[in-house]
Design brief:
Number of domains: 2
Strand content: 5-15%
Helix content: 40-55%
Strand order of the largest sheet: 1-7-6-5-2-3-4
CATH class of the largest domain: Alpha Beta
Shape: elongated
Number of helices: 12
CATH topology of the largest domain: Endonuclease, Chain A
Distance between the termini: 54 Å
Order of helices and strands: HHHHHEHHEHHEHEEEEHH
């Protein structure tokens, strides 16, 4: 069983447990209501058994939360999708929260994350208000249920991993990401202030590829590398989980080539500060 499959299954189990606790339903009572052995409830909550769609529907109705069915089915979709392609339509059927819970577990089970972003701030570095605007916009664009507050909460909870001494994080942003603004000016200013303070922190390496930098290879798209086992790439319609050795090696080579052009430390702060100052000029 892959680490990433188990991460998704644990995220689903945690959400089942949370929903049951919020409803004030005892595990034994839930098992009796749906005709299961109590051990099945325990296995599902601990991420030790893969539920079916019918299991999840029964769970939601038994605790009086039929509105949670789509969200649970979305979590299951992220768990059971085969191959490299994971449809956003299926994963986000119940809103953004389900995918964020998978991200929390995925990060928990990873020691080193390398992320390159072209035009946006990485989720692990976002402020709550910045994330809130992005989730609202994405929900409107995709026409899905807006579970914004729950998604923001999960994203902020994921950021606790930044302070885990056993983990390492390497972020490289194209300078455009410091200027592309999908939120009010004051929210972007707060976001840039956060980035400024993160430069040089222990266990967090943050670089910026400046406008006009010479590169050995142009940047086709953003990507995230989890340890040396998984690369995640997002498109408009789907998410690609690349786990083959050749794929991982290719993206690691791209990472090495692209990060050669990044500025770190004081030069990175200057680039962030210049973007921050441009917001004042717009006032």
């Amino acid at each position: 069983m892959s680490t990433d499959f188990q991460s998704a299954r644990e995220a689903l189990g945690a959400r089942l447990r949370e929903l049951r606790a919020e409803a004030g339903v005892d595990g034994k009572d839930l098992a009796e209501a749906v005709g299961w052995h109590p051990s099945k409830v325990s296995r599902l909550q601990l991420g030790k058994q893969t539920p079916t769609r019918d299991d999840l529907t029964a769970w939601a109705h038994a605790i009086g939360r039929p509105d949670a069915v789509e969200e649970l089915h979305g979590l299951l979709a992220g768990l059971t999708l085969k191959g490299r392609s994971r449809s956003w339509r299926r994963q986000l059927a119940g809103g953004h929260r389900s995918r964020q819970e998978i991200a929390v577990k995925l990060t928990d089970n990873t020691r080193e994350i390398r992320a390159l972003e072209v035009s946006r701030i990485p989720g692990l570095l976002q402020t709550p208000d910045f994330a809130r605007h992005l989730f609202d916009q994405l929900a409107a664009f995709r026409g899905i249920q807006p579970t914004t507050e729950a998604a923001v909460e999960a994203r902020m909870r994921r950021q606790a991993a930044l302070y885990d001494p056993a983990k390492r994080f390497h972020f490289v942003l194209c300078e455009a990401s410091l200027y592309h603004r999908a939120c009010p000016r004051e929210v972007m200013a707060e976001q840039l202030d956060r980035l400024f303070t993160l430069v040089g922190q222990a266990r967090i390496e943050l670089g910026v590829i400046p406008f006009g930098a010479q590169m050995r290879r142009t940047i086709p798209h953003a990507f995230w590398i989890y340890d040396r086992r998984l690369v995640i790439v997002e498109t408009m319609s789907e998410e690609l989980w690349l786990q083959g050795a050749e794929d991982v090696e290719m993206y690691e080579r791209a990472w090495e080539w692209l990060t050669e052009s990044a500025e770190y430390g004081a030069p990175a702060r200057r680039l962030i500060g210049r973007a921050r100052a441009s917001l004042v000029d717009l006032a």
